[in-house]
What does this fold into?
Amino acid sequence: MSITLAESRLPQRVLLCRTDRLGDLVLALPCANLVKTIFPHCQVDLLVSAYTAPVARLFTGADHVLEVEDIGLSRRLRAGNYNTAIALFPSFSIARALVAARIPNRAGIAYRWFSPLFTYRHPEHRKQNLKHEAEYNLSLTYAALAQEGRWEEVLSPDRLFPLNLKAPEEAIQRAAGWINATAGEKVVALHPGGSGSARRWGSQSYAELAGRLGQRPDLRLVVTGGVGEKELCHIITHSAGARAVNLCGRLNLPELAALFRRCDLLITNSTGPLHLARALGCKVLGLFPNDSSMTPKRWGPYGLPESVLTAPAGQRMEYLEPLSVMMHALDQLELLK
It folds into this structure.
């Protein structure tokens, strides 16, 4: 479809800002593909946190990656000569930096006290959780650039994921060595932790699941987590026995991406690694609380409602039975007979 733009909004250099967590960044990356689809010759840069920047740099759909913690950020943004910036994560500090950088077209949400700093204010509440976070990002991006139509008419929803994330080849080779799977073995990653933004399945439940999966000769298990989750990962790895390797605290984000490229399935909570694995094309099984504020409708693996297990209504996460999770995992792996 053709898109009518005001001349002053014609994008030449677009800055997409998503400066919060890993999963949030991953769910914002399709916006770069949307911009490039509409305007193939447009430069699209990302402004992200220092923590997520290594993943942003794996994404081939962006031209440059800037870190929000950079000294003299407004000066660097001004030097980038952006004519459009889209704040996908509402933040006063970002809005103020975009103004200070003299970016003429600044888009963001309409309902924050600092929203007057944006030249386009998007009238859509996210707190109602009516659709997926990736779609909220795309709606804002499209509306900031176009005057008519819908983003779905330009970028088909069934083509949003996987993304083109290029993990370093040396990291992929290291991942193969860590896993050390033999022919015929499927590799299942367990990531039991998380940043705390959503409730988690309990450590004993993960341990029981690992024990059940570890009894299967056709599976190899890998347990991952952050440096603060070593005790948790040790318990789960120990329960799985000799068929599991514990990589907790040993991987940076590009190495985690490389590992997921070699895995057949990731089982985890509502976490950033869930979205990273989905973006890489790895099968996933997400474990979610039955809570409208953490609903998989907004935060689940995009386009894969069958890859989610939710706690029973009115019950805690512990009421997700390990046996049920295992059966769903084996179904994902096509190992049910």
Summary: Confidence is low (pLDDT under 50) at residues 1-8. The two ends are 47 Å apart (CA to CA).
